Amino acid sequence: MLDLKELPNGISLQVRVAPRSARSEIRGEHAGALKVTLTAPPADGEANAMLCELLAEALRVPKSAVQIKSGQRGRLKTLHVAGVSRAAVESLLEQRTR
Question: Which CATH superfamily does the domain covering 4-96 fall into?
Fold first, then answer.
């Protein structure tokens, strides 16, 4: 089950990133984290930027609403997303894993 935390202005969640993948996509849940594959390499923050863009687009929020709070250089990251609810993220996962 995905580890989501409700915040006063959005949510906090764990994301496990796999850079240099064949496709950029949200794959589902893995060990309590949202699994995301990205075509970008991890160098120069390219994968982090692509991650924020991908999640912002999927959750229909501005890119500035998605912030990486920890794990800038690792595969496991903690993100804060402003302006979304737990239900929105769960709905997204449900749609992507059908």
Answer: YggU-like (3.30.1200.10)
Where exactly are the structural domains of the chain? 4-96
SS (H, E, C) the chain: CCCEEEECCEEEEEEEEECCCCCCEEEEEECCEEEEECCCCCHHHHHHHHHHHHHHHHHCCCHHHEEEEECCCCCEEEEEEECCCHHHHHHHHHHHCC
Q: pLDDT by residue for the chain (98 residues), tens digit each?
A: 788 999 999 999 999 999 999 999 999 899 999 999 999 999 999 999 999 999 999 999 999 999 999 999 999 999 999 999 988 888 877 876 65
